[in-house]
Amino acid sequence: TQSTRPQRLLNAVQKKATRGDPRSVVKAIDDFCRHKEWAMNVGDEKGCILDSVVSEINPATVLELGTYCGYSTVRIARLLPPHAKLITLEFNPDFAAIARQVIAWAGLEEKVQLVEGASGDWIPKMKEQFGITTFDLVFLDHWKDRYLPDTKLMEECGLLRKGSVLLADNVICPGTPDYLEYIRSSPRYESRYFKSHLEYTKVEDGLEKSVFKG
Length: 214
Ligand SMILES: O=C(NC/C=C/[C@H]1O[C@@H](Sc2ccncc2)[C@H](O)[C@@H]1O)c1cc([N+](=O)[O-])cc(O)c1O
Ligand SMILES: [Mg+2]
What we know:
Elements: H1 5-16, H2 22-35, H3 43-57, E1 61-65, H4 71-77, E2 85-90, H5 93-105, E3 112-116, H6 119-122, H7 126-130, E4 137-140, H8 147-156, E5 165-168, H9 171-175, H10 177-185, E6 189-197, E7 204-212
Parallel strand pairs: 1-2, 1-4, 2-3, 4-5
Antiparallel strand pairs: 5-7, 6-7
């Protein structure tokens, strides 16, 4: 049977990366996507911005919306302090199965909880299911039309505290206009745009970092 792109990406990780070495897993995926097949990972240029935001916050609790193959999951988890937890939500079971193996190859299973399902269903259950009070950091990289409803849902469910940071991928390309309009005009957030490029291309894209004011 034909392999899928995520399966070919996983093969590249297992062939080129060293088990237990997250940096080599990140490099293997970036090399695969730059030289073999483009894939919608946040990539190395925006990934460095992601790294700096994670390092600045040093979060104990992280929520990632949209795991895909686990590239940004590995990028974030490798920087987390020992007892920090990253919960990542993935809707597509095939992507989730690949991501679990990528996360395992990086040796980061202890820090990551991959949950299969839709953000809209799981966000209201975060407190009771995972003992989360609030998230220090949320990385939004799932369906672009879900960024705004899920942000409102997180507010309503009390999952954001004064100082919680939302970091959103693709606010230019493919674009999340309703989310940008909301977050930039809301008095409850302080937002800043980090100009960059769409992964592995010269097309403009960027990350929007928004701090919740409570
Ligand atoms: O479409 C994009 N991302 C959508 C990502 C979606 C991911 O999140 C879940 S959906 C879901 C739903 C609900 N809850 C959790 C996950 C999908 O199964 C996929 O794994 C995208 C597209 C481009 N591009 O150039 O076209 C570039 C990017 O960086 C992108 O992120
Ligand atoms: Mg993205």
